[in-house]
Amino acid sequence: MRINHNIAALNTYRQLNSASNAQSKSMEKLSSGLRINRAGDDAAGLAISEKMRGQIRGLDQASRNSQDGISMIQTAEGALNETHSILQRMRELAVQSSNDTNTTQDRKNIQDEITQLGDEIQRIGDQTEFNTKKLLNGDADGATTSTTQVLTNNMNASNADGTTLDSLVDKDGNNLGLANGDVVTATWSINGSQKSSTFTVSDITSDSLSSITDTLSAVAGGGVASVATTAGAMVVTAANAGTSGQVNGLSFEVKSSAGVRKEAASNALSNFSTTTTAENDHADGSSNFQIGANTGQTLNLSIKDMRADTLGVRNLQVGTESQSATAIKVIDEATQKVSAERSKLGSVQNRLEHTINNLNTSSENLTAAESRIRDVDMAKEMMNQTKNSILSQAAQAMLAQANQQPQGVLQLLR
């Protein structure tokens, strides 16, 4: 009889160690909740899940970034909402001042409020900020080079430089009804200072009236560098570059020799729009919102200068009926600029809200994928732990039995 009890004990001991190690790993997974606690558990799975974790945290931070961006936009938009309210009040006062029931003192009182309101729009633009970042003073605008404003009134291609005023037609081909003896008054504002020029339609040569070029020449000077007509369009260029030189509220009023306003002619000659916007020269101060987990996933937002100086509503004059009429048009132009900027801010805010929803969805789905790789299946692992526990206990019992085998050899020695 060979003495092989050591072999049986060693085999049982090896099985016991294997079951104990397996049970220990199962307990580790159950206690941590992770299937992969170290690289040795699943080297490839660890690398993949860590990459996913980086993306998940990046997506979550991008969502918070987008929410911060919305907060900044709401700050700017809230300030512009107040600017809008002030502009509406200024327009109301300008309309009031246009009425000749007002005395000189009445208009002075109106002027005082207009001036204060313009100063408040300037203050809002200078001081509105988010996290110390200025929003409405032009610092948050994109990079621009200094440009000179150009205004264009597109009338009718049949109008040329030499077209006499009694032959002028609007863009629909209707004659403007200008006649000899009509008085034309041009008014405009530059940097809050109102300009005006008046001329009477008169004979230049026999049976001929002043031409369209002569009409434009009436506004030359006073901050206007050049005037021209091209294919019927009346073109006015500011004398100085930048927002301080822009022409605001340019309009023509035509009255007959009897003092009756000619609406069709006045409206047609005053139908100017900006074709080249006046810009100041400054570096890029726009904001890039990091709205993705990776490099380059950004959204750019620029906010234009919304101060009273740039809008042309600081120090507006309403002391006379003519000044009030010009002020109304200047305020209308300023209101349109503020509306356009608020519309842009609102559209970007809506975009960021959709971005947040998309980021949250992506993060949720990527988290689920990462969990399938990294997290333990609790039910399955509990089953494994129970199995390994039973095997460990059985191995311990068998090891005890194996250790009893030498007693059989001792019986042979008796």
From TrEMBL:
Superkingdom of the source species: Bacteria
Domain Flagellin N-terminal: 3-139
Domain named Flagellin C-terminal: residues: 328-413
Primary localization class, coarse: secreted
InterPro entries linked: Flagellin, Flagellin_C, Flagellin_C_sub2, Flagellin_N
Keywords: Bacterial flagellum, Cell projection, Cilium, Flagellum, Secreted
GO cellular component: bacterial-type flagellum; extracellular region
SUPFAM superfamilies xref list: Phase 1 flagellin
Protein name listed in UniProt: Flagellin
